[in-house]
Amino acid sequence: MTAADDPGAVPVRDPADGRRMSAFREAVRLEGERVVVRPFDLDDAAALIEVIRAGEDVLPPTFPRELKAETLAWWLDRGVHQPQRYGTGVHLAVADRLTGAFAGTIGLFRLDWSHLSCEVGYGMRPSWRGRGYATEALTLVSEWALRTCGLHRVELRAVTGNRASLRVAEKAGFRREGVARGAERGPGGEHLDQVVFSLLRPDLDEARGGEAPRLIGVGVGPGDPELVTAKAVRILGEADVVLVPVMALEEEGRAESVVRAYTGKAERVVFALNDRGGVTDRRAAAWDAAADRVVRAFRDGARTVAFATIGDPNVYSTFTYLAQTVRERLPEAVVETVPGITAMQDLAARSGTVLAEGAESVGLVPLIGGVAGFRDALKTCDTVVAYKFGSVADEVVGALEEAGRLDDAVYGARLGLPGEDVRPARDLPRRVPYLSTLIVPGRRGPRGGKLA
C-alpha cells in the first residue's frame, strides 16, 4: 500500500447523495478475467501469516504486526472492515480467479465525500507480479469507485523510481499530473519524490472510445435467488445502475428481493404491473418515466444499465416495453438480454412434471384476457402452460374438466419463496395469486411422449 487511512476517523456522511455512501459500504466483490477483488475474511489467515514470515510488504498499514491468533482473527473479522463501515476507506484482497490464491491487496483511502475524491494504493506478492494482475485489480476498483460509488476523482501516487507501479497506473488509464517533491519518506529516512496520477469519471468514457451505452435485461428467475445464473450475477455486479420494476415505490418487488441477494444497487422504477386494458395512460407514463431514468443514467456517465426482471426478459416481461421506449429516445443504445429460468421450468422441476418429449408441442398462454385461448390450446397443443390465471381460476378448472385433463395438471405459486404452493390443479386454493403457473402435460404412453 502507498498510504494509510485513519482507522479511528469519525464516521462521515455524504452530503450530496446518501446512495453513494450506501453503495460504498456494501460488501465488494469485483471479478475480472484473471482476478477477483473481494473483502478479507478469516480464511485468509494462513496466507497472511505466510506473507508476514516472507517479509513481503504488501499488506494494509493497519495490519497487526504480531502473529497472535486472537489479534489476527479480530483484524480479519472486524478491524479491516472498519474504515469501509465508517466511509473513510476500504481494504480488499486480490485473488487469482481460477485458484482463489491470495495474490495481493488494494484499497481506497483519504476519502473526501464533500469533494468526491479518494486515493488508491495496492501491493502484489512478488510471485504474482508481472502478470497484469495489479492493472486489472486497479481498473476494477477504480471503476467501482467512480461509477458505483459516485466518486469523481481517484488519485494514485508512486515513487519516481518505482517503474512497475508507474506502468500499472498508465496501463489502467490514469493520467500523470506532475511530481510531488519529497512527498514520501523512505525506509532510511530519505525524502522521495512521488509521481501523481489521477483518474476522473469522465476519463472512463473517453478511454472506452465512445463505446455505445448498453441496456441489459437480466432474467433473475421466478424468485429463488439460487436460480439466478452466474452471468446474471456478474452483469448485476458490473452494471453502473440496476433498475427493478415495482408496483409502488414503497413496496419491494419480487425481482428486487432476488437482486438484493447479490447487490444493493437496486433502484426501483414504477411499472403499472397490475393494469389491464391495453396501453393505458398509466402504463405509458410508467414506460416513459422508466425510459427517462435509463437515458438520464447514460447522460450522467453510466455505460451499462441493467434492468432485472422476474423469469426471462424475453418471455412476458416488462423489459421489452422499456427497451422499445429507450430505443426510440436513444437510438445509439445497445439492448441486450441475459436469459433467466422461467416459472414453468421451475414448476416442472419442483413438481416432477416433464414439459415436453419427442415431437410434442407446447402452448404458452397468458390468461389475463380470459380463457378462450386456453381452451383452444388444450385442443391443439400437447402440453399447455398457463400464466397469470388468478382472476379466472374457476373457468380454468372448468375448461380442464371439459377436456378431461384436470387430473394431469399441476399448479404452482410463490415458487422458491416462503409460502411456496405446488399442488395438483384439482386442489386449487380458493384464492389464486396473479403470478401463478399451470402446467397441463401432454398425454403420454408407457415409453413417454410421441416421437416423430
UniProtKB/TrEMBL annotation:
Gene3D superfamilies: 3.40.630.30, Cobalt-precorrin-4 Transmethylase, Domain 1, Methyltransferase, Cobalt-precorrin-4 Transmethylase, Domain 2. GO terms for molecular function: acyltransferase activity, transferring groups other than amino-acyl groups; precorrin-2 C20-methyltransferase activity. GO terms for biological process: cobalamin biosynthetic process; methylation. InterPro entries: 4pyrrol_Mease (IPR000878), 4pyrrol_Methylase_sf (IPR035996), 4pyrrole_Mease_sub1 (IPR014777), 4pyrrole_Mease_sub2 (IPR014776), Acyl_CoA_acyltransferase (IPR016181), CobI/CbiL (IPR012382), CobI/CbiL/CobIJ_dom (IPR006364), GNAT_dom (IPR000182). Keywords: Cobalamin biosynthesis, Methyltransferase, S-adenosyl-L-methionine, Transferase. Pathway: Cofactor biosynthesis; adenosylcobalamin biosynthesis. Residues 35-202 form the N-acetyltransferase domain. It comes from the Bacteria. Belongs to the precorrin methyltransferase family. This is N-acetyltransferase domain-containing protein.
